[in-house]
Design a protein that fits this description.
2 domains, about 260 residues, 11 helices, about 10% strand, single chain, mainly alpha, globular, Arc Repressor Mutant, subunit A, 4 strands
């Protein structure tokens, strides 16, 4: 197996080496690089052998941002790509929406649409209704949950994870702790300790399903691990899994504000 991995990396190296201009800087854009076994060996070789500027993208499942340092030597910068902001959404709809002129001139209706359908670009290439868009978003969610989290971490109690996700989705913008989740699960006859809850929440963060907003103790000048808030990486995740309810709009608006702050 190790021999096959090295062979794949060597083939990648040789294929790209033949196309690198010997004089001047070469810019390499390697998309979904995790599909090549031992890709980091080829990338590290490019950085030492040539004058190159390399841009690498990959899915969470086999290339978590927290693990990049174990793959790459030397200096690198990690960029986090968010779903479309509202401003980006408006531009995207205008440029790439169905037939080009999908954008309404009513900003309030566009904001309502953005709130319900979220910021995944694929959703805004066509004039999808929520019933048409949510299955697509749910597939993105399921792929992330079961590939990036369950399969990757060999989680056996999937129902526990799904109940924690449901609790987090239901409590967007509210402060809660691992203890409150444990208490909620115990009320449903599901016993789980606080550390396991935090472990699951951490994995949901790593896969970019959730974003954690920690409390800051001004007097002690440190972050507190209790009574945190969690926000979704895209509001449409909640609606695709649990359906749209008008009572959730305020929390989802707060979610959008938090995402905008993260982008800035």
């Amino acid at each position: 197996m190790q021999h096959e991995e090295i062979k794949a990396a060597k083939l990648l190296y040789e294929e790209i080496k033949a196309r690198i201009v010997p004089s001047g800087k070469t810019y390499l854009f390697l998309d979904e690089i995790q599909e090549v076994r031992s890709w980091e060996k080829a990338v590290n070789s490019f950085m030492t052998d040539f004058d190159v500027d390399i841009y690498v993208t990959g899915s969470n499942s086999r290339m978590m941002s927290s693990e990049i340092s174990t793959y790459l030597t030397g200096r690198y910068i990690t960029f986090r790509i968010f779903p479309l902001s509202f401003s980006e959404y408006l531009t995207f709809r205008k440029e790439y929406g169905a037939g080009g002129g999908g954008l309404s001139h009513n900003l309030h209706s566009e904001l309502a649409r953005y709130l319900r359908l979220g910021g995944f670009p694929v959703i805004h290439l066509q004039e999808y209704t929520p019933d048409e868009a949510y299955p697509i978003i749910k597939d993105i969610y399921n792929s992330t949950i079961f590939t990036d989290i369950v399969k990757r971490n060999q989680i056996r109690k999937v129902d526990q994870l799904e109940r924690i996700v449901k609790f987090a989705f239901d409590n967007v913008g509210r402060t809660f702790s691992a203890a409150s989740i444990s208490k909620y699960l115990k009320s449903e006859n599901r016993s789980i300790d606080n550390e396991t809850v935090y472990n699951y929440l951490g994995k949901l963060e790593s896969a970019f399903i959730l974003h954690r907003c920690s409390r800051y103790d001004i007097q002690g000048k440190e972050f507190l691990k209790t009574q945190e808030k969690f926000y979704l990486s895209d509001p449409a995740f909640r609606y695709s899994i649990q359906g749209f309810t008008r009572g959730s709009v305020a929390a989802m608006l707060e979610n959008l504000v938090y995402l905008e702050l993260l982008r800035r």
